[in-house]
Amino acid sequence: MKFTCSQSDLNANLSLVRSAVPNRPTHPILGNVLFVADTEKGLISLTAFDLSLGIRTSFSANVEEDGSITLAAKLLNDIVSRLPEGEITITLEEEDDGEEEQSKVTIESVSGRFQLRGMKADDFPELPTIENVEPVRLPVSALTEGLRGSLFAASTDETKQVLTGVHLSGLQDSLEFAATDGHRLAVVQTPTQQTTEEEDSTPQPESNLEGFAITIPAKALRELERIMTMHKETEAVALYVDEAQVIFELGSQRLTSRKLEGAYPNYEQLIPHQFSRSATLERKRLLSSLERVALLADQKNNLVKFTLAEEKGQLILSVESQDLGSARESMDAQISGESGEIAFNVKYLMDGLKALGAAEIQMQLNQEKQPVIFTPLGGLKMTYLVMPVQIKD
Amino acid sequence: MKFTCSQSDLNANLSLVRSAVPNRPTHPILGNVLFVADTEKGLISLTAFDLSLGIRTSFSANVEEDGSITLAAKLLNDIVSRLPEGEITITLEEEDDGEEEQSKVTIESVSGRFQLRGMKADDFPELPTIENVEPVRLPVSALTEGLRGSLFAASTDETKQVLTGVHLSGLQDSLEFAATDGHRLAVVQTPTQQTTEEEDSTPQPESNLEGFAITIPAKALRELERIMTMHKETEAVALYVDEAQVIFELGSQRLTSRKLEGAYPNYEQLIPHQFSRSATLERKRLLSSLERVALLADQKNNLVKFTLAEEKGQLILSVESQDLGSARESMDAQISGESGEIAFNVKYLMDGLKALGAAEIQMQLNQEKQPVIFTPLGGLKMTYLVMPVQIKD
């Protein structure tokens, strides 16, 4: 194997696959990145795979000799990111005779020469493939919007299985994203048809998504989010699904992930559709007030109390801490329905407010123990449901 | 106590004293910052003190009522930094009747009201004072330069006592800064007379520094460095010294620190003045090469080998790691004296190269076990001594 490429290409592509390299690999080779050099196509492909999440990317290079090898991902990334701009030549020094497990790889740049020990490509696990399946095509814009509004609400508790993922389901012209950790729920609908103002834009191929439903680990979707930032909003992601796996393809990048098994909770039935009270609020103002009063919230229950003062047209936030003191902030609010009090975990509110995006939001509620809904006024089609916390007397 | 000030003044001054607040205070009140409000001067002073390092700062405010109180430094800093710009009013709600240990303090801004529990000012330890001593006056520029070139070389091992500080000593027209951890030594001389091109600048009062010698904890000097960044280079720091303490005064800021006891090593005798070999090197090029090859250096001894190739006019850096592989970089160098090899701890070299500052540096050496000297060509008057490491065969 021998090829020459630019430092910036190699560096960008190594960074891209790095997140599929486990920090503590269960087997040494999983800490490596797989290089495959193809003279015919003039391409280098890089693959990292932690047995659940896999990322493959390829880029153009001057390939002199076919071949493949795996190299320590972190070390290589550290070296390449520090090399000066310009050409880098990577050579597999001695072809393996089948007995030695390690081979020498030389990395040459204008500044000097590194020699690393590589491990045989044969020992690197195969990325899952999905054959004979028509992909679903989703615009980058729709996926990006949907993930931004839902990923944060997924559970980080690995024992919660299906709740550690985001549930994607197909509606007639849109894709629905849902994530919940049992305390709050975020649901976003994004259109799957591109609405673009450019006249010469090619309409995206229509995928029939009705009935489509799948739960994908949040970790894999965070990486997908990162990969999408390097692409245009008008590009399309091809999504291949089989019983156990999903594959996202976008330009020369491919991300594979296992699916999460088990039925996703029927969240639709949790969302109330009739409300006795509502308040329209300035999102940033509410968020910055919450960030301040949260400093005094008890670390145990993180409780913040909302007082709706209908006559005054004000929302009052208050926090009491046994040890530290108390905080009280108020802001203008358009309130309809009766005045009253309700309490929340302040962290759940802050997470949701960051994702809602719009300048103004609406809070809709019934009695003080029933779920509360936050929706943006304009922009994203998102519903954020938070369970209130009981106020202690 | 009651006063009104701007959010930005309060925030800046709280941040300034924060570093003298210990993370884990041995007594609760040391986690607090002392507020003293003075109606006559229209000033608020803030003090933090961890019993070794103390910082006091003051700023103008509209003081309605004299008084003093202490408040949890971290919490207050977190709150104030998040308050919107504008006026803040702080009121000590109920004067202490002598029995209660805690008092209520209200912090009001346009956005709302925080109420915190304060602890009595009487219980806050007094900052050391130094009476009837003429201060030494040092230009900010000289102190800043001296500290930048020496602080990094002080030992971080608390058992090494006097080596955890920087030794300052007075020469005829300059101040010498020295720091060593036993493996390397940094010495900087900075002029104490301002050389400024502004014609209307007032000459600094001349302090006779000959014979002056003192060792100050690196931690205190790092804070002094930070305080000085907020002042002009042409300002002067007044340094008061007694048997146990030092006080630095700069504008409305004051930093007190204990001195480090014990004789500082006679480092001057360690520095060789005759050399059989030397090399002139481009500093940034050497530093970036070292940063790359260091990635392969054995974590135990961090060894990098320098090969001086006089005929080729090159310096070759090489690193070998049993586990990872090897690295070799070369760069142009003006070499005088014989070719040969010498090895260093790569981390010590990188630290020193960052501080040396000049575009070109000179490395001067004798035999492979004798100390090596690095000096900048032009700019700072600095000597960086590193002990070489024995090369294993």
Automatic annotation (TrEMBL), chains A, B:
The keyword Cell cycle does not apply. The keyword Magnesium does not apply. Pfam families: DNA_pol3_beta (PF00712), DNA_pol3_beta_2 (PF02767), DNA_pol3_beta_3 (PF02768). Residues 1-128 form the DNA polymerase III beta sliding clamp N-terminal domain. Keywords: Cytoplasm, DNA replication, DNA-binding, DNA-directed DNA polymerase, Nucleotidyltransferase, Transferase. SUPFAM superfamilies: DNA clamp. One of its GO terms (cellular component) is cytoplasm. Residues 142-266 form the DNA polymerase III beta sliding clamp central domain. SMART domains: POL3Bc. GO terms for molecular function: 3'-5' exonuclease activity; DNA binding; DNA-directed DNA polymerase activity. PANTHER family: BETA SLIDING CLAMP, DNA POLYMERASE III SUBUNIT BETA. Forms a ring-shaped head-to-tail homodimer around DNA. Confers DNA tethering and processivity to DNA polymerases and other proteins. Acts as a clamp, forming a ring around DNA (a reaction catalyzed by the clamp-loading complex) which diffuses in an ATP-independent manner freely and bidirectionally along dsDNA. Initially characterized for its ability to contact the catalytic subunit of DNA polymerase III (Pol III), a complex, multichain enzyme responsible for most of the replicative synthesis in bacteria; Pol III exhibits 3'-5' exonuclease proofreading activity. This is Beta sliding clamp. It comes from Gloeothece verrucosa (strain PCC 7822) (Cyanothece sp. (strain PCC 7822)).
